[in-house]
Amino acid sequence: MMMWRMTRGAVRVRVPATSANLGPGFDVMSVALKTPYLEVEVESKGEGEEIELTVSGKYAADVERSVGLNSACRALKILNSSLGIRMGWRVRIEAGIPVRKGLGSSAAEAVGALLAAHLALGLRIDRRKIVRLASLVEPGGHADNVAAATLGGFTIAYRLHNGIDVMRIVAPRNLAFVVVIPDVRKESTGASRRVIPESVGMEDHITVASRLAAICLSLERGDLRTLFSLVPFDPVVERSRAEAGLYGRYNWKELLGEKTRLLRRYGVAMTISGAGPSRLLWYDLRRNAQEEGRRPIDGALADVVSTLESKGHRVLEVIWTEPENSGAVAVTR
Question: Domains, the chain, ranges and CATH?
Answer without folding.
Answer: 11-169 (3.30.230.10), 175-321 (3.30.70.890)
